[in-house]
Amino acid sequence: MNAHKLVTALVIIGLAASMAHAGQGKEKAAKWPPHIQAVFDATKPLEFDRGDRLPLYIWQAMDPGSLDDKSAEKLVRKLNERGVGLISSWDPRNRANSLAKSFTVSRAQKKLGLRVNINATGCLYSFFDGDERTAHIDDEGKPFWDDSFGKHNMGCPFALDFRRPFVREQVEFFVKEYKKADLGIDFIFVDWEIDGPIEFNKAQAASKRCRRCRQNIKNIDDFDEFQKILRKLRSELQRHAYAEPVKSHFPKALVGNYGVYPHNGYRYWYDYFEYYVDGQPFKADRNAKYRKWYHEFPETGYTFAMPVVYTWCRIFDWYDYADTDYRWFYNMLLVASNAGRHTPAEIPIISFVHWHTVGSRPSGGQAKQFSGEKYKELLWHMLLRGTDTFFIWCGRQDAAKEIQLVHKVYAEAQQYGRFLSKGTPINFNVPKQPGTVISGLKLGNRVLIRRTDFKKKQGPIEITAGGAKIKVAAAPKRCQIISLP
After folding, report:
1. Which CATH number fits the domain that encloses residue 141?
2. What angle do CA 301, 302, 308 make, to 5 degrees?
3. Is pLDDT of 19 > 90?
């Protein structure tokens, strides 16, 4: 073979090898759906064993599509190596298909001794389904809707009894099928928001127009009374249609809903569809109006707490800190500390988290993004104030960074497994001015401490832990374990 032919042959061989390699890479990349592959791309296998602690939940680690048993087992195992729990969704609009996909994943989870995780959101929609029988009724007997919740028309909270069996059956169908298939349910959540009785926005004004509401709420002008009655109704709907059917078949299941958790009587955040209306009771903090909140958690029958710790855009204008990171940090730690302090130790806290700014500013312009470094510090402090694990919510376009930030903290935290599992929080204070934030978990005669400084050159700070005083030195971006005297 002459030199020219040799070169040509080598080129052909090289191209063939390159194409084969590219094909293998493409096949490998295409094995999982893009949203699942995004999780793998943004995470690494855990360095420290997480034991029996709760996995990290991620919106993208949900519903991988149709899998055979072997592929499902492989996917569940590989995600678990990263500490991530795969979630299956129930869809009452397509029961057979939804059940088949869920069964495949859940069988794999049971075989591997892992938690079976379910998203039952679709099963709770809708109580207000557009049927005019659920509308408010004015003095002339005409139906009308409360349109202050955006595209979702809300009706009369006292007109939903005939919808209860319909919604409950949607939950019971899947629960009973799981029982018959000898599959457990370990974690089940819903993202049930704009439906059922809600007292905010212009709901009270609509109820004052409704003759049925006036008949059922004697002191309808009293917002506290109005809130109490509507939250009791809302809690009862969730308990009857969702928590009870699940727990009657799977009494050890973790059951919960977005935004429902024990608290101190106030809520420090507004959802995207909510806004303040003059006359509603609140606690002022600079420009923030923290709304008075009903203690609904005990009445729902839920077995885990689910606070929402998001970078809602309005937070940025509530506070005037020159250090804009502290505007986010302050509010979000208030939310997490509120849940941590008031949730009993036996109730897990699974906190919804989000980093990219949500929504737009009423005043116009852009809110300065919360820095990734300080967001990670927030996550550490949440873990040291009672949060057991995180649930990352984000859109696909934001998934890579959102997952990377949270997974890094979650993965590193596993080295402190005994503290995470058995430790008791020592501090829930959130400084009103940027300075030093300290959180910790006490276990025996030792404390796992995280100190975050928002001002430079801060010396050792004395705190009380377990009745003893200890000094906490600066230790940027790391935890300390301090023995008590």
Report:
1. 3.20.20
2. 140
3. no
